[in-house]
Amino acid sequence: MYAAxxxxxxxxxxxxxxPLALFLAGLPLASARxxxxxxxxxxxxxxxxxxxLEKLSEFGKNPEGGVTRLGFSETELAxxxxxxxxxxxADLEIHVDPVGNxxxxxxxxxxxxxxxxxxxxxxxxxxxxxxxxxGSLGAIEVIHALNExxxxxxxxxxxxxxxxxxxxxxGLTTLGSGVAAGQLGPEILDRKDDQGLTLADxxxxxGQDPAHLxxxxxQPGTLAAFVExxxxxxxxxxxxxxxxxxxxxxxxxxxxxxxxxxFANHAxxxxxxxxKDALAAASKEVLAVREAxxxxxxxxxxxxxxxxxxxxxxxxxxxxxxxxVELRDLDPAVIDRMWQHxxxxxxxIDNEENVETTCTPLDDAEPAAADPAVKSAIYxxxxxxxxxxxxxxxxxxxxxxxxxxxxxxGMIFVPxxxxxxxxxxEFTSWSDAANGVEVLYRTILLLxxxxxPN
Length: 454
Ligand code: GLV
Ligand code: MN
Ligand code: MN
Known about the structure:
- This protein has 454 residues and is of the alpha+beta class.
- The protein is built from 12 helices and 15 strands.
- The chain has helices at 18-24, 46-56, 74-89, 133-148, 175-180, 199-205, 236-240, 278-294, 332-353, 372-384, 399-403, 430-450, and strands at residues 3-5, 93-96, 102-106, 114-120, 157-162, 223-231, 244-250, 252-261, 301-303, 308-310, 320-329, 356-365, 368-369, 389-394, 409-414.
- Strands 1, 2, 3, 4, 5, 6, 7, 13, 14 and 15 form a 10-stranded mixed beta sheet that branches. Strands 8, 9, 10, 11 and 12 form a 5-stranded antiparallel beta sheet that branches.
- Helix 4 (133-148) links the parallel strand 4 and strand 5.
- The chain is elongated.
- The two termini are 34 Å apart.
- It binds glyoxylic acid and manganese (II) ion (MN) (2 copies).
- Residues 120, 131-132, 165, 230 line the site of one manganese (II) ion.
């Protein structure tokens, strides 16, 4: 399934022009200042990267060592201010679009489309310190390194911090990049959270005017490419001792919110054959999701992340059980097939349990393929550092997936310890993190050199 590329098998070395090759090898060009880096080979400063990541992990820190920093929360708002300060320290010019995506620009020497790179700083509930954070602060570190090298690029460069990638708040994954790519519009503004606040309310809290949401759309042709550095969030790189993953494609997902409606009644007096127990039905439905996903071979996955039961009393039969169903695969037809099967199963379970289950669509992210030119620059960048690479799919949804609709995209993965992510135990070693950021730095320079405006 995965292809590992030792450095000797990597291609395209001859495409790197000599001055750029010298530059990537760490040899200063005539105009470059002396390096202020911890390693002679590296342009990025891994100590500075570590210290900014550690500081970011204070925002929303939880007792287990990770963070809860949901998109659209006071905690994330404070973290955004910190990241904006970092961007300004890197001499980036800040612009926040109407959905809250933060952009920091560095001019180029030519009149060319923008080379965009970055990630997100929101987390899941009880998340870790690397998912999104590494790609975000790694992108700022790349700008510092370019400034220190006095490196000019032909393309304008922009660092982006996308809004609410995880979508734990409002149930919409990759919200900011979805709006930027024109796949989400004003229809999302009235969506309410558990506190009854709408997305429009939160945008106002973030200093934005929801009436201008559509202005966040990035017009096709604006971007030369989008590159995202991210942790793998799975075990493949670590298991195979490969430091760099080159993402080939990102899975699609669909989500539905389902509610099993039963009847809340006395737990002591209602005979077993007269019950309409919503939780009993939902429990069978949760297991039906797992069975449907396992019914055919492949890498498809399916999850029910929670069940909310009402009224939730020890002596009352559950009258209502709400649960989300999420299905993921690289092939949308597989997702649709599993869902069709599940709908039939839910009907059978409803009959068995005398309840009614209804499901409404919650989210839909199409799969996306990485662009060959961007992948090729990542291979070359890793080769210039003698770092072996492995081709991988992304089982996690990503902002790059949405941006693939409007620009060529590529993703660099670095190992996740034990394959753990969306957990306080999420960990990537500082040397693996630094490798990823240096590969990002070199990828951006290669793309700047190679990409044709047409
Ligand atoms: C986000 O990381 C997701 O895959 O849900
Ligand atoms: Mn992420
Ligand atoms: Mn995530």
